[in-house]
């Protein structure tokens, strides 16, 4: 089998036909410069690329300076390097993009300056020629000619282009030339990538898999949408560097020929001038009306000519100059200055006035100095700044001859037009407040004015919709209006009427409840008489609910919270844990603190933790209106990642590519970065509130750790509440708190009960006027627990009346005062077990709509439930009330309620039940519906695995097995159990190990079930059994399972399982010293491996088999006496490990590269690999391995007493076999070498004898051990 690599059929001919001469040529003074910007610089892979580039540059007599950022995560660093390269105007550029979208504007500049760009390290892995046409029909024909030459004029070629409608000339030009001039080439059907690089890559991988004899692939600028990439080259790293330079030289020569053969005057004929004439210009009709804001309507241009600049001031600042999107400016003050100039383009502004507006608190001299520095920064950051800015000694302004399309101006013009269509366009343009995140004084008045215009526009749209009878649309606009202006009662009244008109009285009641609570909480007032009258007509209620309980005795705690918030506002974020017993007032304290913070304008999001799927509180935060607005303005890549948690993101943006499964570390990193971009990168400080954090899942805790430690300058404060007794030492929250405390980023506030005086004040605030003696009696009976005090007084406690010693009895007495419908509804709501929506209650309740609305209102008025701010849900005012309400429901009715709730959730979330699958499973479990509960537990495990929440997946599958264990034996029951146990294999690997008793019990039972029912074991089971056998050093058993896996893979044509079988058989042979067999299997695994299968290998089996097998092949070749081949295999394994970026696989390759260096006596290479192991860390590698290798280097450095300690500890730790096959033998080999290096011959001889006596996996080093004994 050949190894697929994608070598570029260069597109130099296609793109060299573009015009606008700027760069160097081969005829300029001195050798031309080909600047190469790689993804990184230090790593071995990129150093090899550099070597190849320098070799080819010497052959071609050109200069090829090579640079790259420190790490492949430093996108901004790479963009800065590319910016500097463009400023030097080289003859050509070689570029390996870390982020193609971020690089696109700069590559467009290169195109405009006629600087050819060659993309390398494209990520497509095949030996098929690839051409990329970037302009018109003629360029596509030239690409076809080069393709035909590259494949010898015959073979099958596929087309992957943008879409069916646009750029048809690039498709048709290629097809027409091939049909006319290359009869030996067969063209497959055309595939469309839609301009999305990920989609195009997936299509390419599918084509390679479906057509193994494919000769070539033609693509039209899907790699980077600007279409300025000349070639795509993926090879071995040295060859990659060579071909990048060679391709650039060809492009330079083609451009030089074009310039010499094309006169400056018009009218020249020939291919070059034809391409010049047909290429769309920046002002051609082809571009008019297409460069509107993504996902928004395209209003008519307000300028007389096509604008040369576009600016967005609503929400995040964005600026496009010509066809170039300006990267985010580092200075918020620079954005503020540009915004001011854009909003005041009618005339220049005196510099003195601008300086004062931006620095009102500085002296005039200092302000003007600051302005000079700021203008200098803008000139560096803005391409051709003087084309847009008019700066004189006295004034500053936006140039009159540089027209600009400004979203604010378009918004105001559309609002003024007043018809519904234009109003819809206007409100769509308003993606956030004016320059959100900037707090300069000059902005405030203008920001409020525009905000009110948006509020009014939404109100007008709602009224227009009502007039034509479209209440659904009217409600949508009115709800948006309510979110922007939560104090406008008219909007609430309108919504109440419309919900009633649509027959949704429960939602109408909720709307009033939100209105009342918001006014009471934020302004301390009740709704107006008009609003109250609407409410009374709606529910015939006796009166509104009372206010929330007063906050008493917490001044000191509020002062601490205020101090921490001030620190967070300045970029010193952290977490505050408010802890205490149930009912002590944790939530009430945080609510008051939240209210105080809201007055300063931060972004606030609330969540409450329940036992649920991973990231549940994060989902609640992200659905807060302010964060949803931020998320909507993120780049597409981040919104795609957020769709893992928020499925509605894809529904709202149909053109957004869906997220693809990724290895755990990669997926977590991308998801965390996307959440961070939403939560902490929006300009304003952010307050995240989370109740009952003791129920937080492991993944949420990891995310909080990332936000607070990985973003140390974030203006973020997380305030959490927890019951003191519920945060156990083994809980992930405890680990999070411990780490944050060590970093000085955790503040803990413990709440105590109220004293006698505070209890008396609370009673007075609740309307009870008590004598000192009665207040003392109340304190004594309630022990100062605020919840107990409040519930006692609400339940009618009076002096002299004995009070139950239990708060539960007090709550029971208060619930008994409810009407029958409200009591039944309280029981149903309590059975939900968490916050609940009116939709779920309506679907599960045994009541009509009117009774439901009345019952909800009674529960709200009596403060049994409250609405959840920012969502259309209710929750109990305290968990103790929920518990008591549920305990009042009899067991038979409980089961019926759970069944109805499960059915309601299933019906409401039918399109996407994944996020609520665990809730459905739990309710079915409690309803006694075992079969359906098992089905939903499996679905919940699948949903958890998608998020790599392996521990949770293992737990819910364990519950499913418990339920199945209680059913009578039957074939159907056994089949279900086999499915569950097979599904359990993947999460168990992460939660335990292949050698754990729990894993072995699960495998053994699954194998028994398969054999008992004559079912072929599933490939995942066979592979799991084989690896477990390897870990136990039972190699004959591992070999048998590996052979079974191969038979199944060959029968089913399963390429992934075939490669995994070669991996298993190779490892088994290696540790039995069957070196020829091991070599054959490892080489087979490498040959059959396909890069397109990498995600499947990593997701299902935890490593990349090409990395592991290639690295182990290196050790095998050394033992076979082939040192040069061993080095080559090692380097290939390390290069591929760097390419795929899978941390665990890389750790394996580096570990065995270090072992190879030890065996070969190559100290320099050994030190290099041990340094890599140290960088990788102990998470993917056993910490004993890292410590042992580090200890060996300490011995080499002359300190054996210190160095031998960790090696001997590792030997003892692995005595039982270790976490991987051969682990103990490797540690003994290391100890043997260390004793030799220390000069302790006796100790070395003892280790050698031990290895020979051990046999087994130590047989690989038997010759080494014998040589040591022979010298002893």
Describe the fold and architecture.
This protein is an alpha/beta fold. The protein has 8 domains: 34-133, Response regulator (Rossmann fold); 137-235, Rossmann fold (3-Layer(aba) Sandwich); 306-468, Winged helix-like DNA-binding domain superfamily/Winged helix DNA-binding domain (Arc Repressor Mutant, subunit A), CATH 1.10.10.10; 486-543, no CATH class; 554-745, 3-Layer(aba) Sandwich (Rossmann fold), CATH 3.40.50; 758-796, no CATH class; 804-889, Arc Repressor Mutant, subunit A, CATH 1.10.10; 1052-1270, Serine Threonine Protein Phosphatase 5, Tetratricopeptide repeat (Alpha Horseshoe). Helices cover 58% and strands 8% of the residues. It is built from 56 helices and 24 strands. Strand 3, helix 4 and strand 4 (117-120) form a beta-alpha-beta unit. Helix 40 runs antiparallel to helix 41 (971-991) and helix 45 (1055-1071) runs antiparallel to helix 46. The longest helix is centred in the middle third of the chain and has 27 residues, at 441-467. The protein is globular. Mean pLDDT is 82; it is low at 1-28, 122-135, 221-235 and 257-306.
Indicate the CATH architecture of the largest domain. Alpha Horseshoe
Q: Strand arrangement, largest sheet?
A: 2-1-3-4-9
Secondary structure tally, helices: 56
Mean pLDDT: 82
CATH superfamily of the largest domain: Tetratricopeptide repeat domain
How much of the sequence is in beta strands? 5-15%
